[in-house]
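Batch job 17 of 40 flagged for manual review because the log was empty.
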Amino acid sequence: MKYDKFRSTVLEKIVREFDNPDPGLFRGHGPYDHIISNPKDSKDRERIVNEYLLLPDVPKIQGEIKLHPDAHHMNSSQIMCYNFFRPLLKEYNKNKKDYKPSDELVDLVGKIIDTPLENKNSSCKFEYIQPNTDTTNFDFYLKCSDVEVFFEIKYTEKEFAKKKVTPDSELQYEKVYKPMISKAEHIFKDKTISASDFLKNFQLLRNAIRAIDNNKYVVFICPRAHDNLVNQYNKFKEQFLSPKGEEHVKLVTWESLLTAAENILISQGEFCKRYISILP
């Protein structure tokens, strides 16, 4: 299915799930039915998300997550991520600024990465930035003992981000990403990746290079019917990933993730109704 058709189908159906009292603008255009109001600031955006976009029984956000500028959109992948993972977490630890995962979540992630995990020395974060690397935000992050799993969540985004080749982006590649590639060379077919190839596949490669050893995994999640994202990942996998890389850098569809959740008795009925049952 072509992207425009996919996105319009999802938006047409998702607005039926809401009573939107104040359709909002996007970049000065609109109003649009899938956008709830026009937040005055970050606190107002948080209020809108808490009032309209969180699923029943999902704890309110109280400043512990920096919301994206488009978090008040019904199709926000950040809020989709929060609605899925937050019910599987225990209380937020204000001192450590993280969550403790439930045993069910640890079991589920173990099945995703095909590696059994034990819920010891474990923690989770939304909008995680890996220390001493770059400023990449991962939508969700789980650590169990020495195992780390980095999640990138997609819903109706058009593609995995690319970057134009400019003097600044080439300099960033040389200073920041080329050294990171060398640490993760075992996941790639070729030990070197050119600046041009890296920037054409920027988000996929930038995320993949976190898998620097056997205890680190990168997981991309998107809808099965989103041909743009699925095909983009498959081409990336074919061009760059070694067999070891395919084990550590995975694409998982929302549908297969929910099937795995159901198999270990994790109920996500409201989540499926909101986000998955409306997919083409």
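Reviewer: the log was empty due to a logging misconfiguration, but the result itself is present. The chain has a mean pLDDT of 96. Unflagging and moving on to job 18.
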